[in-house]
Amino acid sequence: MPGEEFGESVALVLGELSDLPYLPELPARGTTAGMTGRSLAVVAELGFDLQPAGWRLTDAAGVDHRRARSLLAQDLDSLEAAAQGYEGELKVQLAGPWTLAATVERPRGDRLLADRGARRELAQAFAEGVTEHLRDLGRRVRGARYLVQIDEPVLPAVLGGGIPTSSGFGRHRSVHPPEATEVLSWVFAAVVAAGAVPVVHCCAPGVPFEIFDQAGAAGISVDLDALTTADLDGLGSALETGKRVFLGVVPSTDPVRVPTVGQVVERVQRTLDMLGFGLDEIGGQLVLTPACGLAGATPGYARTALSLVGESAARLAGD
Q1: Strand 88-95 to strand 54-58: parallel, antiparallel, or no bridges (unpaired)?
Q2: I need a labelling partner for 311 at 20 to 30 A (CA). Which of 4, 56, 124, 261 fits?
Q3: Local structure of 98: helix, strand or coil
Q4: Whole-angstrom distance between the N-terminal and C-terminal Cα of the chain?
Q5: At what angle are helices 229-240 and 261-275 packed, to 10 degrees?
Q6: Phi, psi (5° rounding) for residue 95?
Q7: What tens digit of pLDDT does each residue of 165-217 get?
Q8: Which domains are assigned to the chain?
Q9: Pairwise CA distance, residues 278 & 303, whole Å
Q10: Radius of gyration of the chain (CA)
Q11: CB neighbours (10 Å) of residue 318?
């Protein structure tokens, strides 16, 4: 979400998305509040610090890592106060183990992705931290049923050997699908064991649907504009096997012309027709969303985008 006022964002989300609100992220508050900082705040046992080149694995938590943890705790306090009495689904989101491995540096430089042992250690510590994070959330908002969205926007590049080294002159070796699947399965299993539902988000072309399926994801979130022809086949297979699909159909930044509810509904129906599905078959599996995060939008458009997906979903459902 845009802006720096967490309380305002929580109130907006709870007001506009009463069927499926979420814990907002406000990266405008600084690196400790961004996707990577927020996710490292839940990692168990390992420490990190912030360098000019970004986050780095260390022997102990640095001051910025401690700030990230403190900020998360403050945000959860605000969520707890705002969501008193809430009963229903509530979504939280974290950067996944492969996106973290491709983003965070080793103590001696270059990405954790370059070290097979380090990236697996990070994934295991992350899975343990997710378990504790969900315990904490469960104590705070007791009536909620949690969906945990694991963001993996760079996984297609990880699989394809497309992540540059720190020097910029080379590329990290591609990760083989069996290892990618195994690492994700640790995280998804931790989510399920904590009584929550694992959903995975990938907004890049080349969505690895088969890996997500084999790893145990119960739902998949994608950006409709980014899907290739092969991705559409994967999307159809996900719907056919009963997975929930979170379909990004509304721009995530201020467009030249905001689509109408009718245009969004028509686009969704056209996509389902192309895939060979009717709303009567898969309507209960489908969730409409913005294409990606709204952090780059103006506050006014962020509110409009949330209203638009809610109204479009209601029309599709015949409400």
Answers
A1: unpaired
A2: 4
A3: helix
A4: 27
A5: 80
A6: -65, 140
A7: 887 788 999 999 999 999 999 999 999 999 999 999 999 999 999 999 999 99
A8: 6-26+82-316 (3.20.20.210)
A9: 29
A10: 19
A11: 7
